[in-house]
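Hi V.,

Quick status before I head out on leave. The structure for the redesign project is tokenized and pasted below; the design run finished overnight.
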């Protein structure tokens, strides 16, 4: 299939394009466009930026809106006041600078920064993408990485609100019917079971409707008020009693079968839904988890799926039952007395209005409760995991105040919900009680005139009273559906989210990785206009060791993440064995790249289980060998249960250095072709570090190793060293070459040497 043509960033209004055409610009040749909101002096106006193969064009003017209707702007007119044209050949680079509340668009001409315009920070992302397109075109690079997400594509075309995630789905504009159809799609595999459920519901409804005809109308009008002999009436009474008992028993039996069949459907559907959520979470990229709170994600897997579960257990099945019962009761009431039934119909619109209004209100309140609960869960999770920091800084009272604020927010949301609930449902019951009294008064007049029998009137009253059940249910089901729809929307957000790191449609299959790594013109940023890696290029042959040094925040760990493809570069390419990492299968990369990060995570379980996590089939001998290599064996054997000692989440029973050694053992067990050590020995004392370094020497043989470290002494054996400063590669070469060069590496080496000498003298 041919790839879909990417959307150009920025979209200028047609009226603006006509104004530019009057200035002899060929707008059909524009490569990319962007919209700003200030001129070069910081005055608010409309800025329309565009470029083609010849030049960069900045048009300044104003937009005048005559009318507003909701979120849609109508009857806009535009005026062009100034047009600035700069030949593209004169521009070396186009960039943005971010300040506290504003930013600036800058062109580099003859090595000098020339300010072109200012803008508010809300325009930063769009203008930065525009700059990236201009720079890529100037340098003859591929523009595709910058042509994916236009500013307009990030907003809902209906209401104009910014999308909350990459799904491009607006929760306010999603149709409820679409959510319902999608949920019902999970029942396709159980269509025959559902057919049985529907048949059972019809049978239950029929019994409920027919039963009063025997237990009330026939009893009063055909037996008690009959002039037949007593013996004959006793026989009729016995028959009626047997019929009622039989119908009751039949009703119980059908209900049992119904519950059994239903118990096989909904739990399996919810299981399937949970599996899809968790499967999607495993597929998503690291960036997704960086933007979500832990409590929020846990709520979606547990509480939201249970909201859907209870709706389909107590909601959908009884919805059909109550609709059938409501129609059946109204039909029987028409048959008994059409005059009294018309009175009932006159009140139905009032009930429907109350139900519809309540549905909208309850859905909004449910979302407020969910959001408040998710924030509270995240706060509690942070508090539990951060107890060491809290105690160290004596912040218990402040944490209590934070908890109180979050809890009050949840309490207030639940209080509002309870107030609405306590108002709506009594109102419904009051309407039904008034209606029942009016029917009783009017029906009694019919009995006195001889138009109705007492049993007929009592049966009608019973049917009217039975109406309260379906009406109550239908009012409640709107509440349940509000909760279910709100939960479903959040669940589908996870399922529908696209992974930023995607495997190529036709990946390059390699039998085995050798481990050579080459970076070419690498650019990366976590946020627009804040580059972390800037045009980094270097090459490491298979089997070599590369040491990366630099100050904190220079971008060293980011390089490690890009090599292992936890993130994708914004521009440039990483080659492994001459193949772009984006063209290699993700499974091949994950299997052959071992990463020991400075952020260590140990799973809840035994130490042995954590070590063999990378190789579940490993026997105990392999686990012990890996632990010995990482200098973890000795401290493990001192623990109460040795390798079977259970550690909590994040290994909280172990010290930082001990967790780090277990993490290294886990990477050793993986036996990767490329080993990345990101400050792997930072939490260890010098003696332990030397022990591990000696052990890792054997591990490094025959594989490519990338070691990131602050201690330059740990990188003496590196074949190559890279010095990273503010995301740029300042120096690259061997240890001896960089020392003789007396540049940035030499300065770092001198600083650390003097510090060590001072410690030794002390």
């Amino acid at each position: 299939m041919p790839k879909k043509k990417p959307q150009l960033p920025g979209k200028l209004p047609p009226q603006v394009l006509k104004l530019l055409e009057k200035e002899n610009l060929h707008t059909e040749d524009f490569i990319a466009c962007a919209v700003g909101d200030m001129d070069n002096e910081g005055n608010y106006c409309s800025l329309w930026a565009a470029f083609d193969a010849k030049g960069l064009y900045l048009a300044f003017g104003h937009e005048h809106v005559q009318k507003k209707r909701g979120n849609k702007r109508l009857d806009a007119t535009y005026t062009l006041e100034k047009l600035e044209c700069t030949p593209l050949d004169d521009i070396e680079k186009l960039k943005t600078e971010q300040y506290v509340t504003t930013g600036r668009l800058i062109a580099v001409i003859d090595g000098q920064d020339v300010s072109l315009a200012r803008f508010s920070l809300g325009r930063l992302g769009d203008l930065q993408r525009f700059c990236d397109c201009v720079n890529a075109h100037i340098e003859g690079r591929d523009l595709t990485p910058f042509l994916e997400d236009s500013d307009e594509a990030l907003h809902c075309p209906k209401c104009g609100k910014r999308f909350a995630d990459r799904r491009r789905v607006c929760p306010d504009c999603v149709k409820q019917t679409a959510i319902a159809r999608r949920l019902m799609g999970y029942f396709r595999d159980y269509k025959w079971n559902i057919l049985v459920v529907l048949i059972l519901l019809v049978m239950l409804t029929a019994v409920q409707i027919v039963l009063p005809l025997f237990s009330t109308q026939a009893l009063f009008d055909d037996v008690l008020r009959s002039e037949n002999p007593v013996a004959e009436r006793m026989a009729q009474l016995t028959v009626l009693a047997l019929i009622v008992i039989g119908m009751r028993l039949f009703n119980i039996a059908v209900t049992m079968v119904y519950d059994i069949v239903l118990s096989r459907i909904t739990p399996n559907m919810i299981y399937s839904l949970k599996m899809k959520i968790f499967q999607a979470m495993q597929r998503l990229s690291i960036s997704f988890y960086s933007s979500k709170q832990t409590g929020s994600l846990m709520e979606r897997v547990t509480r939201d799926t249970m909201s859907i579960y209870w709706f389909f257990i107590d909601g959908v099945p009884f919805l059909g039952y109550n609709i059938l019962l409501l129609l059946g009761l109204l039909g029987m009431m028409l048959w008994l007395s059409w005059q009294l039934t018309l009175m009932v119909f006159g009140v139905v619109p009032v009930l429907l209005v109350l139900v519809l209004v309540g549905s909208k209100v309850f859905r909004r309140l449910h979302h407020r409760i969910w959001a408040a609960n998710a924030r509270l869960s995240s706060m509690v999770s942070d508090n539990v995991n951060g107890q060491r920091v809290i105690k160290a800084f004596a912040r218990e009272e402040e944490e209590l105040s934070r908890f109180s604020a979050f809890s009050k927010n949840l309490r207030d949301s639940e209080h509002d919900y309870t107030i609405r609930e306590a108002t709506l449902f009594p109102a419904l019951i009051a309407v039904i009680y008034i209606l029942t009294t009016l029917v009783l008064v009017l029906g009694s007049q019919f009995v006195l005139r001889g138009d109705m029998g007492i049993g007929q009137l009592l049966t009608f009253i019973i049917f009217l009273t039975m109406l309260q059940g379906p009406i109550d249910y239908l009012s409640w089901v709107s509440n349940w559906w509000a909760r279910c729809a709100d939960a479903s929307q959040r669940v589908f957000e996870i399922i529908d989210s696209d992974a930023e790191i995607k495997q190529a449609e036709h990946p390059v299959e390699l039998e085995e990785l050798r481990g050579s790594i080459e970076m070419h013109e690498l650019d990366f940023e976590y946020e627009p206009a804040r580059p972390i890696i800037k045009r980094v290029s270097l090459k490491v042959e298979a089997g070599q060791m590369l040491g990366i040094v630099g100050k904190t925040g220079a971008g060293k760990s980011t390089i490690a993440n890009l090599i292992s493809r936890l993130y994708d570069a914004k521009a440039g390419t990483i080659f492994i064995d001459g193949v772009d990492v984006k063209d290699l299968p993700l499974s091949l990369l994950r299997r052959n790249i071992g990463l020991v990060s400075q952020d260590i995570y140990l799973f809840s379980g035994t130490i042995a289980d954590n070590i063999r996590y990378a190789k579940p089939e490993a026997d105990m001998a392999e686990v012990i060998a890996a632990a010995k290599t990482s200098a973890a064996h000795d401290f493990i054997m001192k623990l109460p249960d040795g390798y079977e000692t259970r550690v909590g989440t994040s290994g909280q029973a172990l010290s930082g250095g001990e967790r780090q050694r277990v993490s290294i053992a886990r990477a050793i067990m993986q036996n990767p072709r490329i080993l990345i050590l990101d400050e792997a020995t930072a939490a260890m004392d010098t003696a332990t570090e030397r022990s591990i370094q000696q052990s890792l020497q054997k591990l490094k043989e025959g594989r490519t190793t990338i070691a990131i470290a602050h201690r330059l002494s740990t990188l003496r054996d590196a074949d190559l060293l890279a010095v990273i400063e503010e995301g740029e590669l300042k120096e690259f070469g061997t240890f001896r070459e960089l020392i003789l060069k007396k540049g940035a590496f030499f300065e770092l080496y001198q600083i650390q040497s003097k510090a060590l000498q001072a410690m030794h003298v002390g």
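Above is the designed sequence. The mean pLDDT is 77.

G. will cover questions while I'm gone.

Best,
W.
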